[in-house]
Protein: DUF6318 domain-containing protein
Amino acid sequence: MNKTWGRAAAVLTVGALMLSGCGGDDEPTATPTPSGSASSSAPASPSSSGSGSTSPSATATPSSTAAADVPAAARARTEVGAIAFLTFFYDEVNRGQTAPGSVDLFTLSDKDCIACKKLQTSLQEFVDNGWSVKQGPVEISGAALANAATEERVIINFTFVQRPVDYYKSGASQGKLQAGTTKNAAALRWISGGWQMYDLEEL
Structure:
């Protein structure tokens, strides 16, 4: 795939897979799913009833060290470097669920990245509701560039996998994240000597 990414032309949304939780008022519901699709292009996070925000909460706790922690392998403007950055981005999403409040995805993303805003909101829900997981639920596989690493927008096609891990509150399991696999694409751009997430889309 070699496409032109335009946020005005294509509404890129990020959703979360359904959760199977315990009953009661605090049972999580699904976070928004991509337009026209019943599956997810991003890791799930529990979302409380009535949570419809599509931008990061003002109470989010950013990580001041996230950008500095980008591995050297993910700083090269090469195919390997772009894929390493994508992997690191999702590692940070996992860390935001195992250690809620520790990650600010906008140290790695374009400020107008719609998908990233939704992901950051999902991570903030872990903080707001006291949820966490013991093992990161997300992994990616089969990542491959659809165009050259020197292009203005570098497109990476990959498979997103979510494992059915438990999520906890006050040490007690609240349910499991539902397993799922989807085909996705990420758009990266090279700016100020490093990679930046531009947007994400489910294929």
